[in-house]
Structure formats: C-alpha cells, structure tokens
TrEMBL record:
Cofactor names: pyridoxal 5'-phosphate
Domain of life: Bacteria
E.C. number: 2.6.1.76
Protein name from the UniProt record: Diaminobutyrate--2-oxoglutarate transaminase
Pathway membership, UniProt: Amine and polyamine biosynthesis; ectoine biosynthesis; L-ectoine from L-aspartate 4-semialdehyde: step 1/3
Origin species: Catenulispora subtropica
Disordered: annotated span: 1-27
Gene Ontology molecular function: transaminase activity
EC class of the enzyme, as a word: transferase
InterPro entries, per the entry: Aminotrans_3, Aminotrans_3_PPA_site, Dat, PyrdxlP-dep_Trfase, PyrdxlP-dep_Trfase_major, PyrdxlP-dep_Trfase_small
Length: 479
C-alpha cells in the first residue's frame, strides 16, 4: 500500500550535530524537561528528540530532522501520525458542538464507536458480548477484566506468565513478569500463580520447540487438575497473544489452543490482553485469530482509540454479573477518542491493513533473518505482522544447552542509538532489555520498509565493528 510520500531528504537523514548528540534546537526544551519531570521518564531518556510535526510514519523534530517512527506510540498509532480519516473524525466532533466529556452517558458518537467495534470483533464473541469502558489506559482495562472475572467466578486466584506485561497499576503490575518494574511497588500477590511462557529462544524448560510448548501446556494442566498442585482453580488465566514488552514473543498457536481448551473445560475465563496486538498489528485483526481462539474476555486499548486515550473490555455476556458502579472512572467517555477509534477500526477493515501487515511483516522478517548470517549478534528475529523483535546477543558468550547466546543489552542500547542517529526511532524490550522492537504503523510503505532495512544494516555494521575491534586487538597482541 502506498504511503504519503516523504520529502526527498527523509531517506537521507542529516547526521546528528557534533557534541552531546542532542540537537541544538531541542536542547533548551530537553533541559527543562529533565529539570521539571520525574525520574520515571523512559522514552525521553533514550530518544532525545522534540517532535513538532508528524504525518504517517514520519516525525519532524525541533532540530529540523525527519525520523522514521518505528515505535508508533508503543503501537498506538495504527494508521501513523495525523492520518486524514482520524483527523477528519476528530474535527467533525469538534465542529459539531457535541459535548466532549460525558462520563458513561450514551451519545451518538459512543453508539457509532460501539457499532464499529462490534463489526470487527470475532463473530462468536460479538454475537453475545458486553462492552465495558474502563478508562483511558490499557492497565485500567486489565484491572477491570480481573475484577470482572473474580466477580463472575467468586474465585480470587489468577494465572499469568513469565515475560508478561499488563500495565503499571498495582493489579496489572502483579500480573507483569518483569521484576524491575514490579519491585518495590508490588512485592508479590498471594493469589497469583506465575507460569512459564513457551519462549522460542530461551525455553524455560531447556527443551525448545514443540517439546517446550508441550511441557508448558502440561504444566498448566497439572496445576489445574492435580489436587496436590497447591494452586486453587483460578478466577482467570491472563495471556498476551504476543508478548510485546517481553521481547516480541508470539504465543505458539497449538499452545494457545491447548490453553483455550483447558480453560473452557474447567470453567476458567481466558483473558486475552490484546492492548498491543489488537486491530491488525500482528497480521490478523486480533492476535488470538492466528490460533483460531476466541477468549472469554478481550482487553483492548492503544489502537482502539485511534491514537487518543481509550480502553475497553469486551466479554461474554454470561460474565456480566457486576453491580452498578462496580468499576467506574471519570474519563470513560472520551468522545474524541471514540470518534477517532471508530474511524480507525473501519479504515483498517476496509483497507485490509491486517493482511497488509502480514505481507510486509513477512518481507521484513525474511530480510532481517538473512542479516543473521552477516551479524552474529542477531540471536533471533521473530514476530508477527508489524510487531517484530531482534534479540541481540553476545556472539563470544557461552551458549546454553539449546544454543541460545547470552543477551547483550549494551549492544542493543548502542544499536538503538545508532538507529536514532540515522533517523529511525525504535525501542528495546525483552529479557535484559536486549530485544530491539519494531512497531511501525500499519500504513508503512514499501519504500519506507526498504529505508528501514538499509538504515538498520548500516547501524548493525557500526555495532558489529565496535564489538569486534577489541577482540581483534587482543588477537594482534597475542601474535
């Protein structure tokens, strides 16, 4: 699919000015941000740019440089920046004089959004579901989904997985697997059972492949069915169809089907966290679609609001046992987000952007996989659709029993910096922060994909040379 053509100079970004690497036009703003904002800043630390304009996959900074955005608001901007259908939908609401803040009251805008959402949901779920507007973030929706499951089942326990990320509120953090972000805010949850996720490169059972998947599925079954397992029947099992922050780790299709079958058999609601995977990102409308699985609960945010804050929970009507006011929030009725979201969902469906993401994702993964022969620091390339991860490893390290090399977080950070210096925005995730994550908009053009591959190759050249130079000097010294 063609994308808005970037200016000619965008495919040949200017070099970062000498000095500390922070462009002069941005320095005062960045300095004030550092002085005024909290130490919890994340993206601002690693991506020292000041966006002033944006369109499609491109951001223009206060320094006058253009950047190819392969972060897309952490996957929020499915159609890229300022897409005409999104801007038009927002402008129409503003021009209409409609109220912008309505709590959870019914409005024509909300009614239209709900219709658009039902039109893209898995038919089995859409036919008999309820929709809860949880608030502005995915974490709010995760909290609501957990509360819903506990209310409906009368049970407290939860099953979640290693490597998971479900948000930053206390309940969502308890489900999250990353120790660094959980502590000291959440020391532990006595009602949570953590299960091993079948990682394709770092198998928690040391088996790998189908054997590792089978071991993980068997472990879940044992916990549920063994009366001596010590794990009571849970209120819900919470899973990401592709772990995003965990390093772009797709749930194997057969494993996810097994999980669905087991939870259905024992009356345990399956909650699919589709905050990052939903609405075409993985090459299907939803991440669970790859396995042909329909969960009991879907948590949706990011792209669902067309780039504006919105989060919803969709669940089977049989679970709707909440009392009035059981889960509320002031900002549940963001009319601009609902208008932008409805326009986005319809555009994704009408333009076949899920299929486009699958096609372009296969091309990118195929080309990036070829890079592995040239760059040993690429331990694995994986992902689905336009949700791609490159695991950065130490080629000189000691491999484990399955051949996986140690993570190389310093090299991953250097790669991210080299990409930014060449005008490409990307971020890290995964174990030890050593997975380069690519989340470009679903509207990414073929020319922009080629540009990304070229820039990434040049950045890998630099990082590989820097890592090889000390070893080469040591070899010379030995001679």
């Amino acid at each position: 699919m063609p994308s808005p053509a970037p200016p000619a100079d965008r495919t040949t970004p200017q070099a970062v000015p000498p000095g500390d690497g922070v462009p002069g036009g941005s320095r005062p703003i960045l300095a004030r941000q550092a002085a005024r904002e909290s130490a919890a800043r994340t993206y601002a630390r690693h991506l020292p740019i000041v966006p002033v304009r944006a369109r499609g996959a491109w951001i223009t900074g206060a320094d006058g440089r253009d950047y190819l955005d392969c972060l897309s608001g952490a996957g929020t901007l499915a159609l890229g920046h300022n897409h005409p259908v999104v801007v038009g939908a927002i402008r129409a609401v503003l021009d209409s004089g409609a109220p912008l803040h309505v709590l959870d009251l019914a409005t024509p805008v909300k009614d239209d959004f709900t219709s658009a959402l039902l039109g893209v949901l898995p038919p089995e779920l859409a036919a008999d579901c309820r929709i809860h507007f949880a608030g502005p973030t995915g974490a709010d929706a995760v909290e609501a989904a957990v509360k819903l499951a506990r209310t409906a089942t009368g049970r407290r326990g939860l099953f979640a997985f290693t490597g998971a990320y479900h948000g930053m509120t206390a309940g969502a953090l308890a489900l999250t697997g990353a120790n660094a972000v959980r502590e000291p805010a959440v020391a532990g949850d006595p009602f949570l059972t953590r299960l091993p996720f079948p990682h394709p490169y770092r198998c928690p059972f040391g088996l790998g492949g189908a054997l590792g998947e089978a071991a993980s599925a068997s472990y879940v079954r044992t916990l549920i069915e063994d009366p001596q397992s010590g794990a009571p029947l849970p209120a819900a099992v919470v899973v990401e169809p592709v772990q995003g922050e965990g390093g772009v780790v797709p749930a194997p299709d057969a494993w996810l089907r097994s999980l669905r079958s087991l939870t259905r058999e024992h009356g345990v609601p399956l909650i699919a966290d589709e905050v990052q995977t939903g609405f075409g990102r993985t090459g299907e409308l939803f991440g669970v679609d790859h396995a042909g699985v329909v969960p009991d609960v879907m948590v949706l945010s990011k792209a669902v609001g067309g780039g504006l804050p919105l989060a919803v929970v969709v669940y089977r009507a049989s679970l709707d046992r909440w009392a009035e006011g059981a889960h509320t929030g002031t900002f549940r009725g963001n009319q601009l987000a609902m208008a932008a979201g409805a326009a986005t969902l319809r555009f994704i469906a009408a333009e076949g952007l899920a299929a486009r993401a699958a096609e372009l994702g296969r091309l990118l993964v195929s080309r990036l996989t070829r890079y592995q022969a040239q760059y040993p620091l690429l331990g694995q390339v994986r992902g689905r659709g336009l949700m791609i991860g490159l695991e950065i490893v130490d080629p000189a390290g000691e491999p484990d029993a399955l051949g996986a090399l140690p993570a190389a977080p310093a090299a991953a950070r250097r790669l991210r910096a080299e990409l930014l210096a060449r005008g490409v925005i990307a971020e890290l995730g995964g174990r030890h922060g050593a997975v380069l994550r690519l989340l470009p908009p679903l509207t990414l053009g073929d020319d922009e994909a080629e540009h990304l591959l070229g820039v990434l190759g040049r950045a890998l050249d630099v990082v590989a040379e820097d890592r090889d130079a000390p070893r080469a000097r040591m070899e010379v010294a030995r001679v």
